[in-house]
């Protein structure tokens, strides 16, 4: 099985077991990253618009 198929298979198996928020929390824990209260607040919409080039 080539690498691409192995990755797709892994992602399919994992999909139903872990939400994106759980994945992010697990990775932060594994990497020793802690979020403060400010980091948990979403950015204002204009920030995303500026990053995407939309106005």
Unreliable runs, pLDDT <50, ≥5 residues? none
Number of beta-strand segments: 0
Structural class label: mainly alpha
Number of helices: 3
Our estimate of the beta-strand percent is under 5%
Helix and strand element order: HHH
Helix share, percent:
55-70%
The main pleated sheet reads as: none
Shape estimate: flat
Distance between the termini: 45 Å
Overall pLDDT level:
83
Please compute the radius of gyration using only Cα atoms. Answer: 16 Å
Protein model, in words:
The chain is mainly α. It has three helices and no strands. It has helices at 3-15, 20-31, 45-52. The longest helix is centred in the first third of the chain and has 13 residues, at 3-15.
What secondary-structure arrangement, pairings included, does this model have?
Layout lengths: L2 H13 L4 H12 L13 H8 L3
Any key phrases for this structure?
flat, 3 helices, 55 residues, mainly alpha
How would you concisely characterize the structure shown here?
This protein is an all-alpha fold and 55 residues long. It has helices at 3-15, 20-31, 45-52.
